[in-house]
Amino acid sequence: MPTPIDRNMLQRLIAQGAQLVEVLPRAEFEEEHLPGATSLPLRQLTAETASTLSKTVPVITYCWDFT
Amino acid sequence: MSKRAAWRLETLGFEQVHHYTPGKEDWMAAGLPIEGSKASIPRVGSVARRDVPTCRLDERVGDVSARVLAKGWDLCVVVNEGNIVLGRLKRAALEGDADAIVESVMEPGPVTYRPHVVAADAARTLSERHVESVLVTTGDGELIGVFGPEDAPSP
Fold first, then answer.
1. Which of A18, A52, B3, B20 has the most Cβ atoms closer than 10 angstroms to its Cβ?
2. pLDDT at A67 over 80
3. pTM of the model
4. Contact assignment for B16 to A7 by CB distance below 8 Å
């Protein structure tokens, strides 16, 4: 079950090598994104597009806010 | 959206999935660095004057006023021990009853901007509303500094 995390935990997981994924449209990612994040828009999220990520390393998704 | 994406990744076989629901807004509101084509645009958090004087609720206005005015400021931010903004003292209060306690004369809950607001946009808005300055805080309310229209870099 996916786990909600706050900013402190996010920074801790990133320091430990977690994969950070922005799921907003690509154009928004290009303008501004968290350091080291990968763009994987929700509308294009498939087994094929997600294949660039490791399934055994923690993954963190984020968008703009709580929406 | 991040939660749905996290669930989708889990159905695709990802073993440890988390969602940072507060998202990019929370990150930027904390004044943390970003990357991308707009990352270098000056934001209020990067140009705010961080040396704005602060004081505590229980201080005597006369004591606060002496050190604030001596530094050339005409405002003082009221903060708690965690540097969380509780109020603001403007010039009228600083020049008022010296024996008053800060809490009794401060402006409570002043308007604040988050640090990721584009400086040029903020400067335009403040100028249009004839506002001299606004406090800049993190999303958690921690003081970063004070920003006025003149602080925005020239285009």
1. B20
2. no
3. 0.79
4. no
